[in-house]
């Protein structure tokens, strides 16, 4: 599609609507990236780079501190929720909540605060909603780390109810494998039914009470869930394998190795194949405390995994701060409250004045 | 393929080899059916009918009793086990055990016993190894029931170790459905994990001790097996449904309704969807006792389901009697012992003399 013109001087509500009305499902962000790049290149105080369909824009004021404002350009697939629609005090439409509202706020800051009190690095990136390999922020950090790594702090504009959600939990995924022996079901006693033998694994999950871990005064409530169970060879065969896939959300105070040891310990006696571990991000309130105060309100722990963990891995403390209720993300009825848009823009402006 | 000539005067071993060497995977029995039909039409004491790729041949001697000798012509797909091979005292090859050896014995009787003491109905049928809808015997019973229903007794030449395996167990298949509520795994406590809640279903299966039911002095050992477990929505979603598919092999003394009530009782409190029930077949030793004596040895219970149940449903008592070890059926290394072939032919000849 032709790249539309984005007017960054327009009100944050109009800008959010314009962003929603430029579809950018993961993998198809080119038109929106073109529009964002064009609008940012028109601003003389920014140096703009492009990496794939991600755009980075930096001030160069020589401030002692540099802060990243980051948001992803992509959305999940449309669900009959286009074009954008303003209904009372809400902007509805695909990505309004996750996270074009946040991108609009960041673009307003880029255009409207040409001499911020901290140097700013804006990152608008592609493919956040899909597998990690395609993630645009990951690609920037891999190919052009210098564009981002010199920051002392990062604000990820993920929907956070216009409040600060600090850090994020880690994720471990593992297959717990229960083995048996095949047999014809007409002579079931000649085999060992792996599905039957999986009962203790599921019972352990059912009885498991996730820990609540306090880090920097924030309570990270963990979770351990079977997300899949698979057994079955044929309709007349006693299955010789049952695989229970578990998803463990762990507090950012645990390392990947600790998370793995925890899961292996829970399922001692079973084969446990860890398929993925991604670390969380500590809230680092000692390093981001001033910002949290400026953005107002008590910080909450972020329970879902977000790209703040990529900044944390880089040594850059990061927090989630953006308009919209995170539980509305990916729903057909997602919206962003106008009040959130205005509050986020206003508080960031004040902090950067 | 061109239909070969079958020489029914040849030795039962040669005939078995010739049958194996005429491939007849389910759905592709035409060439073998043509050969069998041709060979039987050459026998003046038989009246031959064809239904699809199944062949029925009847004597018409006016005997007070009529007996069916039945065998299926089809095999499972080849597994590198063609052509037939005589190795010592065994005939190896696709279908040698299940059940071209049995078909060879029946064909030898058809050709070699022109004036049997009972009227005979030979049924050589297609598509036994595939879904019931395609079963050739089922089709004959549906389209031309008169060809079979006037018999007082049926012998199904399924591999039975050259002994009598009486009756067969029934099969009930059901889905036990455990329900929960979806949630994001980052907030797992907001949902109800259906996989976790399936633990008691699997435990009940694991602790279940199948009954041993004695019918006519034969012990039918039942079985209750999970043959599949399925749960899973996405890698970050608490699943809202877990389905455990159970396979219940029940003694022929139980009706379909009793079998269903038994399974529903075991999983009381869960949604149970019965997807299929096929009744078993009672051994009917009071009605087939003389034949059992003639065929020698103590009858054993048949644990797998066979087409004897179709005869039973018709009111015709039936038993399994054929050469070959049933546990070798469908294996690449299947074979039939020459001693079984000769014993079966010899005992049937004697009984029909």
UniProtKB/TrEMBL annotation, chains A, B:
Keywords: Hydrolase, Metal-binding. InterPro entries: Bact_exopeptidase_dim_dom, Peptidase_M20, Peptidase_M20_dimer, Peptidase_M20A, Succinyl-DAP_deSuclase_DapE. PANTHER family: ACETYLORNITHINE DEACETYLASE, N-ACETYL-L-CITRULLINE DEACETYLASE. Its EC number is 3.5.1.18. One of its GO terms (biological process) is lysine biosynthetic process via diaminopimelate. SUPFAM superfamilies: Bacterial exopeptidase dimerisation domain, Zn-dependent exopeptidases. It comes from Streptomyces actuosus. It holds the Pfam family M20_dimer. The keyword Hydrolase applies. The keyword Ribosomal protein does not apply. Residues 169-265 form the Peptidase M20 dimerisation domain. It comes from the Bacteria. One of its GO terms (molecular function) is metal ion binding. This is Succinyl-diaminopimelate desuccinylase.
């Amino acid at each position: 599609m032709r790249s539309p013109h984005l007017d960054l001087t327009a009100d944050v509500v109009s800008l959010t609507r314009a962003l929603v009305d430029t579809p950018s499902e993961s993998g198809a962000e080119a038109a929106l990236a073109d529009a964002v790049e064009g609008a940012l290149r028109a601003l003389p105080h920014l140096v703009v780079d492009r990496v794939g369909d991600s755009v980075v824009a930096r001030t160069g004021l020589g401030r002692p501190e540099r802060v990243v404002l980051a948001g992803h350009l992509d959305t999940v697939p449309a669900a009959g929720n286009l074009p954008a629609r303003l209904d009372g005090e809400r902007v509805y439409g695909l990505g309004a909540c996750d996270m074009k509202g946040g991108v609009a706020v960041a673009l307003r800051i880029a255009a409207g605060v040409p001499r911020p009190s901290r140097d700013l690095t804006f990152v608008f990136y592609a493919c956040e909603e899909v597998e990690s390999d395609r993630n645009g922020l990951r690609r920037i950090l891999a190919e052009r780390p210098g564009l981002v790594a010199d920051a002392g702090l990062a604000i990820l504009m993920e929907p956070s109810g216009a409040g600060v959600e600090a850090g994020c939990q880690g994720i471990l995924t593992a297959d717990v494998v229960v083995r048996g022996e095949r047999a014809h079901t007409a002579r079931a006693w000649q085999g060992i039914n792996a599905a039957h033998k999986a009962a203790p694994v599921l019972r352990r999950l059912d009885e498991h009470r996730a820990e609540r871990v306090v880090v920097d005064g924030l309570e990270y409530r963990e979770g351990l869930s079977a997300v899949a169970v698979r057994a079955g060879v044929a309709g007349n065969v006693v299955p010789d394998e049952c695989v229970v896939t578990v998803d463990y959300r762990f507090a950012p105070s645990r390392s990947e190795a600790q998370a793995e040891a925890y899961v292996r310990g829970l399922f001692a006696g079973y084969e446990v194949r860890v398929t993925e571990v991604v670390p969380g991000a500590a809230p680092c309130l000692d390093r981001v405390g001033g910002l949290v105060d400026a953005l107002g309100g008590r910080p909450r722990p972020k329970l879902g995994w977000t790209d703040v963990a990529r900044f944390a891995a880089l040594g850059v403390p990061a927090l989630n701060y953006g308009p919209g209720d995170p539980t509305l993300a990916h729903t057909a009825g997602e919206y962003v409250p106008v009040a959130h848009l205005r509050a986020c823009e206003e508080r960031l402006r004040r902090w950067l004045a």
